Amino acid sequence: MGRTLAEKVWEQHVVRRAEGEPDLLYIDLHLVHEVTSPQAFDGLRMAGRSVRRPDLTIATEDHNVPTVLGPITDPVSKTQVETLRKNCAEFGVRLHPMGDAGQGVVHIIGPQFGLTQPGMTIVCGDSHTSTHGAFGGIAFGIGTSEVEHVLATQTLPAYRPKTMAIEVSGELPPGVTAKDLILAIIAKIGTGGGQGYIVEYRGEAIRKLSMEGRMTICNMSIEAGARAGMIAPDETTFAYLKGRPHAPTGADWDTAVEYWKSLTTDEDAVFDTVVEIDASALTPFVTWGTNPGQGAPLGSAVPAPEDTDDPAAARRALEYMALSPGTPLREIQVDTVFVGSCTNGRLEDLRAAAEVLRGRRVVTRTLIVPGSMLVKLQAEQEGLHEVFKAAGAEWREAGCSMCLGMNPDTLAPGERSASTSNRNFEGRQGKGGRTHLVSPAVAAATAVTGKLTAPADLA
Amino acid sequence: MEAFTTHTGRAVPLRRSNVDTDQIIPAVWLKQVSRTGFEKGLFSAWREDPEFILNQPAYQGASILVSGPDFGTGSSREHAVWALQQYGFRVVIAARFGDIFRNNATKMGLLPVVLPAETVEALQAAAEADPALEVTVDLGERQVRWGAESAGFEIDDYTRWRLLEGLDDIGLTLRNADDIASYENGRQSWLPTTV
């Protein structure tokens, strides 16, 4: 019987397999940031252990960093960032600190450097590590104990998850983006739908997505409960990688591409579960509740709790969000718009927002935060920053920013945002803050009207 | 890791689904570089409500959290496990768990127990009817017992053994250092390095 992409990549990385034990899996790339690593480095020190493969490890500062120029003023954040610097120096790990041209959100810089390649196993102490699966590898988030384990051994013991195919037929209509698609998928299968699975996104609509769009899709796999999501590599993938600093060159490039082309699910392979979705039927999609599965088409209304799968959760969510059933989603007013994060902080996302904002003015506080210093540079070379500034939006430095309420960019209690990030959990963007997840295009249009809006709604 | 064999304690019913790790411990608490002191951050937003179940005197000192489905979804933060343990929990019972949370819990000796939704609800109702109810979670027998009731749960043999013995994963893996070295010798030379 044929094998799925996930099975092929997994088998390629089994260091040891023994009856009654999880597989010992080799890890090709370990991404590190300041929040989930200090206790892991401490653990190494206490046990007298070293980092086995500093040459397969890379670190950046992202979660705590302010997105305005200047030093970190919060002493606790400062200590955490300084701890990362000390640990990287002591254990010989490459670090891209604040202000460095290579700094950025951990899931933006891996692909940008060409370190994220097809067929690899990639981990990071961050659940959005699933992003890297867009290149056709197995990439998943881990906790700090596992971070320490990978630092010490470059391996992880793990049971192979089941496999799920999400078949996306048809083509996304104009104005409908990868973000709308993944929000619709999560609403369909639920926040627990992917638990225990590696998801492979397949089908015509997926093949037509850019690498940026594919990363947005895989990024939010975890919001459907799946630790990893992946997309088979193809010419789009190879074209993205070619010429990047860590991509293979010369004869190695040809060898690598030949291998990468074998990384597809065999025609006779069988998935444990198959989900089908028609892309051509989709419209811009937004969330109304407090988990990413509580979403609906922008053209619809806030649902009645009893019409949802989990009425108790929906009632609680509507109370927290201060929304009433039946209110058209387009009538929801927001205070703040955030464009950025590992979900939508890449150049293509900024272009989409700029396209909407060109020649228009924002009526809300609007933060545009590039995912990395390189994205910032590229955006400025294209003049996107001038578009944002002319529209009255704030053009910021690279970082996780308002995605997670850990740096100065937060919502105040009761404030409401349209955000291109990945989580609308209670208090995620700041205690008492209310979040609607949207695409970059919807975020930009919303900034113009002050209400949840699609670009097509603008005159 | 602290070994887990059997534990008897009182249970707190948390009748909420999708208790994500941002609720278990909000991000603002993750800035610490130590492994201790996270109990203050446990459910810190919800605990501001005097009616919240953990604030009710009857449930003080309880050590088994019985939650609605999809407990521990979202962020990979292991701080969620540390916060639960440091607050005094030894066991979390739910019908479904976020994969990363569940994994993190078993690395730390916090036992995640999966029971069918109707069994979880029966246990929640029992703990609501009698907050002093003693519940026993027996990992050796893979069984939860309360009053005259009992329910079996599944956990793979390897994880169960590791928890019963309180074994450290890194130590176990390093016994196979030769396998790792030999795998490394066979890796493709064109694979990227960060140097």
TrEMBL record, chain A:
Cofactor binding remark: Binds 1 [4Fe-4S] cluster per subunit.
Domain Aconitase/3-isopropylmalate dehydratase large subunit alpha/beta/alpha: 7-450
4Fe-4S in keyword set: yes
EC nos: 4.2.1.33
Keywords from the UniProt entry: 4Fe-4S, Amino-acid biosynthesis, Branched-chain amino acid biosynthesis, Iron, Iron-sulfur, Leucine biosynthesis, Lyase, Metal-binding
Region (Disordered): 411-434
GO biological process, one term: L-leucine biosynthetic process
Residues forming coiled coils: none
InterPro entries referenced in this protein's UniProt entry, alphabetically: 3-IsopropMal_deHydase_lsu (IPR004430), Acnase/IPM_dHydase_lsu_aba_1/3 (IPR015931), Acoase/IPM_deHydtase_lsu_aba (IPR001030), Aconitase_4Fe-4S_BS (IPR018136), Aconitase_4Fe-4S_dom (IPR036008), IPM_dehydratase_rel_enz (IPR050067), IPMI_cat (IPR033941)
Record-linked PROSITE patterns: ACONITASE_1, ACONITASE_2
Reactions catalysed: (2R,3S)-3-isopropylmalate = (2S)-2-isopropylmalate
Signal peptide stretch: none
GO molecular function: 3-isopropylmalate dehydratase activity; 4 iron, 4 sulfur cluster binding; metal ion binding
Positions annotated to bind [4Fe-4S] cluster: C342, C400, C403
Known pathway: Amino-acid biosynthesis; L-leucine biosynthesis; L-leucine from 3-methyl-2-oxobutanoate: step 2/4
Cofactor(s) listed in the protein's UniProt record: [4Fe-4S] cluster
Quaternary organization: Heterodimer of LeuC and LeuD.
Family of this protein: Belongs to the aconitase/IPM isomerase family. LeuC type 1 subfamily.
Function: Catalyzes the isomerization between 2-isopropylmalate and 3-isopropylmalate, via the formation of 2-isopropylmaleate.
Entry protein name: 3-isopropylmalate dehydratase large subunit
Organism field: Planobispora longispora
Phylogenetic placement of the source organism: Bacteria, Bacillati, Actinomycetota, Actinomycetes, Streptosporangiales
UniProtKB/TrEMBL annotation, chain B:
GO biological process, one term: L-leucine biosynthetic process
UniProt keyword terms in alphabetical order: Amino-acid biosynthesis, Branched-chain amino acid biosynthesis, Leucine biosynthesis, Lyase
Reactions catalysed according to its record: (2R,3S)-3-isopropylmalate = (2S)-2-isopropylmalate
GO MF assignments: 3-isopropylmalate dehydratase activity
Oligomeric and partner information: Heterodimer of LeuC and LeuD.
Function of the molecule: Catalyzes the isomerization between 2-isopropylmalate and 3-isopropylmalate, via the formation of 2-isopropylmaleate.
Official protein name in the record: 3-isopropylmalate dehydratase small subunit
Organism, scientific name: Planobispora longispora
Gene name linked to the record: leuD
